[in-house]
Amino acid sequence: MSERTRTAGDGRELPDNVRAIVDEIETEIGDLGLVGTTSSGTNGRIEAAVRDILVEIGEDPEREGLRRTPERMHRMYAELTAGYHVDPQRLINEAVFEVEYSEMVVVKDIPFYSLCEHHLLPFFGSAHVAYVPKGRVLGLSKIPRIVEMYARRLQVQERMTQQIAEFLMDRLEPSGVGVVVEATHLCAAMRGVRKPGTVMTTAHVLGLFRRSDKTRAEFFAHLGRSAPGA
Ligand SMILES: [Zn+2]
Questions:
Q1: Per-residue pLDDT, 13
Q2: Is 182 designated active site?
């Protein structure tokens, strides 16, 4: 199968476990399965770097519990950043439909897990995505995949929120887009900067959602809250 040989941006072949996640985001298949895949294309640099970190924090990388940690971390980081390799065109392929419908489409409570780029610790929560179509709609199952494509990268929540909104604006050319993301950041919770469990909310609105108080209010009403500044 030709897709199997597609490579990462730098020309390296993607390991099977990462390829499987990329395929899953791009296509409708939900059960490709990650068990038993191998990490090909390894040059050992991540493993060596993780071993250095273990030594620097005073651990013994050779002790039983840690011996395979560098390898596991390599595999894990490749999977958690698989979003870099998703082809957006394949993702929305054949899922854009011409319709007359011009009422707001809202997809709420899309769960996601991402990594903050400042600490490489998880931040996770829900994304809520809405748009007002102008002749074209996107298959509903694609919206969580767009979130996934941007979540599986090193991120800051504000940028992720903006990227999701701009992607829909570019690809669908709707009247407007609204995205709200609510997330808990482990770098804040674990390090005691904020109270544990504090949820950060970000919003990005474009087009009609930016211009019209009424549209924005309708969106926030769908989410069960009042619009900021309304
Ligand atoms: Zn952080």
A1: 83
A2: no
Residue 119 is among the residues annotated as catalytic for this protein: yes
Span 137-171, pLDDT tens digits: 999 999 999 999 999 999 999 999 999 999 999 99
Whole-prediction pTM: 0.85
Q: Measuring CA to CA, which residue among 215, 186, 210, 212 is closest to residue 199? A: 186
Q: Is 204 helix (H, G, I), strand (E, B) or coil?
A: strand
To the query of whether residue 187 is one of the catalytic residues in this protein, the response is yes
C-alpha–C-alpha distance, residues 22 and 79, integer Å: 9
In the reported structure, the alpha carbon of residue 190 is separated from the centroid of ligand 1 by a whole-number distance in angstroms of: 10
Residue 160, phi-psi category: left (phi > 0), alpha (psi -120 to 50), beta (remainder): alpha
Which parts of the chain sit beneath pLDDT 70? 1-11, 28-42, 192-196, 226-230
d(CA 107, CA 223): 10
Q: Considering only CA atoms, which of 109, 106, 73 is closest in space to residue 222?
A: 106
Q: Which of 59, 71, 166, 187 is catalytic?
A: 187
Q: What is the Å distance from ligand 1's center to 195 Cα?
A: 14
